[in-house]
Structure formats: C-alpha cells, structure tokens
Amino acid sequence: MTSKSDRREFLRKSSKFLLLSGAASVAYASVAEGQPEKAPNYRMHDHWWGMVIDIDLCIGCGNCVRADKAENGVPLGPKYFRTWVERYHIPPGDLQHPEKEELPVVDSENGGFDGFKEKYKKGDGSKNFFVPKLCNQCSHSPCTQVCPVGATFESPDGVVLVDREYCLGCRYCIHACPYGCRYLHPETETADKCSLCYHRIVRGLTTACCEACPTGARRLVDLKDPNDPVHEFLKMHKVHVLKPQMATGAKVYYNALDGSVR
Amino acid sequence: MSSRFKDQEHLIRMGVLLLAGIIVFFVLRGVMVPRDFGEYGHYRGGALEDNRARPAVYAGRKACEECHEEVVAARKGGRHAAVGCEACHGPLAKHASDPAAAKPGRPDAKTICLVCHLENVARPAKFPQVNPLDHGEGKACSDCHKPHQPKIS
Amino acid sequence: METALPGVQGFLYPNEIELQWSVLIVLYPFITGLVAGAFILASLERVFNVQAVKPTYRLALLTALAFLLVAPLPLQLHLGHPERSLEMYLTPHTSSAMAMFGFIYLWYLMAVLLLEIWLDYRKEIVLRAQSTPGMLGWIYKLMTLGSYNISPQSLEIDDKVGKFITVVGIPSAFLLHGYVGFIFGSIKANPWWSTPMMPIVFLFSAIVSGIAAVLLVYMLISFIQGRKTDMACLDTTARYLLYAFLIDFGLEMLDLIHRIYEADESFKTLDFMVHTQLYTSQVLLQIIFGTIVPIGLLALVQLISLSEAARKGIYVISGLLTLVGIFAMRWNVVIGGQLFSKSFLGYTTYKMEFATREGLLPTIILMLLPFAILWALVKLLPPWQDEAGHSHSS
Q1: Is residue A83 part of a domain?
Q2: How far is CA C135 from CA A81, B41, C126, C374, C380, in A?
C-alpha cells in the first residue's frame, strides 16, 4: 500500500464510521470517551447479570487476566486480581491405598497473567484443567452484608459494586468473601473487586475478559433477557457454582466443574 | 417539691447535655449524608454512575469489523473467526475512536500464536496445540499460517 | 511453585497473599476486652455489694475509661480512609456487625461509663471545683455542669441512679465485647472465626483480662504511691480471676474438642496451622503459659495457705501471664484467621513491620497510651480518699 492509498482508505473508512448506523455508533463513541450520559437508554431493572464459565473450553492463555487489568486499572503484580486463572492438577489415585485423600495441586503464578508454563507430564495419569475465577456477583453477597457504611452494594441489575468515594478501607468485606475476590487497592486504599465491567455492559458491550477470551470459555449472560442463550445452556448442562455451601446466591455458573475445585 | 427538683437539677443538666448531643448528631446527619444515599438501596445512588463513567479500553470486535471489512472477509469460515480481534491485537479502543491518532502495531506472529497454541496438558485435549520444537521447522508461524485464516489448505 | 512468593506455602487465592488486618486489629479486641472486663469487675462490687473488692471499684472504672478512649484509635489508624469514619454513624448499615459496634461503643462510653464515673465522683468534683485554683479548677467547674448541690438527698439520688446505670451497664459491657466476638464469629467464609462460641469466648476472655489488668494496676499504683495493698481485696479479686479463667478455659476447650471431633473440610488445614505457624502463639503462649500456668498458680493459692508476699508474687506473675495469654488469644484469632487460604490449600505468613502506620511501634505507643491517660485520670479523680474521707487539693 502506498501512503496515498492509505489516506484514501482512511477517509473512506472514517466517513463510513461517521455514518454508522444509529445507536451502535453513538454508544460506541460514548464508550471510548467515557461519557455515560450519551449511552443509549439503559434500564437497570430489565437486566440481571451473571456469567457462565465452561471449564472444558478454558485454555489458560491468561488473556482474560491481562484484559481485565488493562480495562479496569487493576494494579500489576501477583497480589491484586479482579479475575485470575488457577491450574488444577489432580494426581492419579494410589491403587494400593485408595482410601488416602488426594489433595489437588493448584497453582496460579501471577494469577495466570503470564500464562502457564508446562509443569506436568502427559500420560502420567493425572487430571489437569484450568479454572478461571472472578467475583460471583452473589445475590446474597456476604461482602455487602458486612460493609458498615453501604460502600459496596448489589446494583438493581445484579452486579456487586464498590463506591470508591465512600469506602472506608476497613477491609471487612475482603474477609467476608468466601472466594477471595476482593483486595485493597493500594492507590485508592479502598476495597476493589470485579465490577463485571459495569461501564461496558450498560452500553451493550461485553466484559473485557469475555471480549479477550478466544474460546468463549467465559460468557456474560443476562438472566432476565428471555432471548439470552444462557437459558438453553443452563437447561442442557449440569452446571455448578463455587462453594454452594456458602449459600451466597452466586451467579457465575460453571460447566464441567470438578468437585476438587475450591 | 421544689427542693426535690433542686436535688435533681444536676441530673437534668446532664440530661439536657446528652439530648443536645443527640440533636447535634441528627443535624449533622441531615447535613452530611449525601443526597442520593438510599435512592436504590443502602448506598449512594451516584455510585452507579461513578462505576459507569470509566472509559472503555477494549473497543469490542463489532467496532473493528465496521472498518476492517477486509479482515472480516479474510477470517470468514476459518476457525479463528470466532476469536475476537482484540484477543490477539490487544486493547484498541483509542485506535477505534481515532485510527489516525493511535496506530496499532502488528502482533508478533512469532510469539502471539503460542500464547494460545503451545502444548500444555492442562489445556482441553480437543484444542489444537503444537510443540514448536517439532512443528514448523523453527520458522515463524506466519510463514505457513495466515493469522486471520490459519488453516493451510 | 517455581517462583513462589516469599512466605507463601501451597496455594492461596492471589488476593489472599497480603494480610488485611494487622497487629493493630489484634490490639483492638484486646483493649475493648480490658474495658469490658474492668467494668464488669467494678459492677460486681456495686450490684452484688461485694465489700472486699471495694478498693478497686473506682480504679476499675477509671481503667475502663482510659482503655475505652484508646479503643477506637487502632481502628482509625488502620482504615484506608480515616477521614470517612464518621460515615459509620451517618449511614450505618444495619446488617453489618461493625456498623452496629460504633453505636454500642458510643452508648457505652457516653451513657454508661462517663455517667457512672461522673455520678460517683460528683461530690469530689464539686468540692474540688470550689477549692482548686487555676486551670485545673476550671476543669472541675466544667465537670460540675454548674450545679454545686451536694446535699445528702442529692447524693442519695446519685447513688440510686448510679446503681441503675450499673445494672444497665453490665449487659452493655457484655454487649460491647460480645459484639467484638460477633464481628469475627459471623464471618461464614472463615472457618477459623465462624463459630457461635466466638462472642462468648471473647466475653469471658475479656473478663479474665480485665480482672487481671485491674489487679496489676492496683498493685502497681499502691506500690508507686507507697500505699498498703488491701490483701483481702487482692485475694478476692484473684479468686474471681480464677473462676472466670476456668469458665473461659472450659469454653475454649469445648470449641477445640468440637472442632477436632467434627473435623470438617477445614480441619486439616487449621490443625496444620496450629501445629506450625501458630504453635508458639497458640500452644505455648496462649494455652500453656497464658492459661494453664496461671490457672495452676491461682488454684495453688486456694489449696494451700501461703504467706502474703508469696501470694502477691503469684498474683503478679499470673496476672502478667494472663495478659500475655489473652493478647496471644486475640493474635491467634485475628492473625491466625488470615494465615490460611480459604481454598484450604495453602498458607501465608505475617511479617510485622516496625515504624509504619500499622507496625509494631504504633502498637506499642497505643498500648502505653491508656496508662498515660489512666495516670492523668488518677491525678484528676483520685480513686482513694485520703484521711477521713477528705480529698486533698493538688
């Protein structure tokens, strides 16, 4: 391509961009500029967000972790994650001592941000898989229950959010989360957690992690939308949530979740 | 009667003091609690707006496809067609809103493929994986595969 | 893990690597425990009319006040945004144990402790307001609230009201510290904390620590002021300490046995933790040196008759050991609850810093502060009346 044709191309494309069909382009422009008032009408009460994660599709590439940190300004380093990926390794049982409990060997170096180096041998009889984790957007969330001031809450559309302007930084919520999904943001000194990319989903976009997931292992779902394929999916699959004994009303459903996952 | 009152006077003074404290508390509360607190529940209604106000960093594949028709066409029918553009190209919302201002680089075709395709026993067996030591003769993946249409026909 | 993070063993959810609650949060239940315990000891005398411990009545109240004033400071220091802490009172979340604690604290400070002290000291305050010159005199004048009536009738009313407040105060003191236990006990995500025993164990350990603290402070002040300690008082207080200790120990053992017998999913992890990371603080400091040894020593006094000096020595030693043991107990709850992963697959460590906001230095300062306050309070409102009930002007 010559630079001349480049420019022509650009003009063609940009004029087309300006003519983009209605809402999509307006929504898009406002997304990029961070101006919520321009977002198309979003009615909170028409939505109830959650996520479906298919363990059988997760390849542990770490795209979701990187995308999340980029999208949401999560501090880099191995201690702060809104979403992370764990690798489970379940050694083969001991035939001589089947009564012995085999604990899974789990690792999540840097939360899976740099992907996973091969660590186990093919054909050693072990079971290996990846488990992406994120806030379960519980509908009876223990974290919002314990917040002393109402700085974290369940939004009317089913997302557990943090009010950075109001949070004391007491960290009670961090302790109350059974899944380890919260951390204290070292710069704002307030609790921080997955917002299910609230700024994106109210504008019709999917979350950053889902956008970056190559295999569709994680999918944003709207449990109030009758046309969302999630309803069919939940019907056709045996799904599970993490730590159901905690009775938190988790809305992140896992397909093909192994019983060893905690 | 009046001497009885006199003997309790100090208690009444203390009571008034405590009452004044309580009144001050309620006045303070009226002044200091944000207006929008309790709009939807026990939180600041404006916090929803605050959470929405972030700019997006990932544009979403729909945006890319509006302009890069040639890539959409190239990807059609391939097994990468379902993979989002930004899964390989990284976050490009800035580029998508102003292509001239933020010109993206090209992903390094030597390394990017292995992020997803490097052999790993924890990956689902169905997923196509290679070991670069015995695949591709040490050449760049893009020497043989086209990133947007990886199947070698 | 190949590049394991320092201090990390096995697997933790990544956000768990950093401990959230530091030694300051250990200090907080320790201090509120002393408050509640000291107050309950004082109330004993008043409500049940135990004459023997009378010499410590006022001292216990002042000790409670001194520690209560310091209690919120470690929390404030720990908060990411201390300037927002007023929100706890402005928009308290009714489902949060922590929010409710703010109100209980205020209630206890204002409606119980300050009132009770004020009523009890009112006569001295008025006398001193009339006789003390200068700044100090003004402080006393302020405390009279402008009412100088100390007629026998008014004092009698004070006594009645004071007694009523004490009666209200006992459940308040129970609430104050039971609630601290509830803050931990109600966290279902954390099996080390989550038990209905937590409030009650906290309460009894609070009583234990409060009695021990008053016992020590009483002996210390008597020693400094060259006053003769009232041996009957010491013996009775020490006996109460023993009783409270036995209940406390029984409850803690019940909790332990229950955990061992049930052996739920978290048991192996917690058991391992107690035998490794928490061995020194839990097994040695808390159980052996902080509980069994002082119980043994105090029981010894009951069983055989010892000389006064020997008894005093035993009280000092067992009092100190008790405080160390109770502090270790708070440490094991707060820090221990954060050392294991909620995945039950790994452990982290707590490295205490020194001269940082949440380090050892502020902890030591905060621990000494109540004694400074107590010293000032004892100067301002002497707990003992000298010669023939007259207070001497300073």
Answers
A1: yes
A2: 57, 50, 15, 20, 12
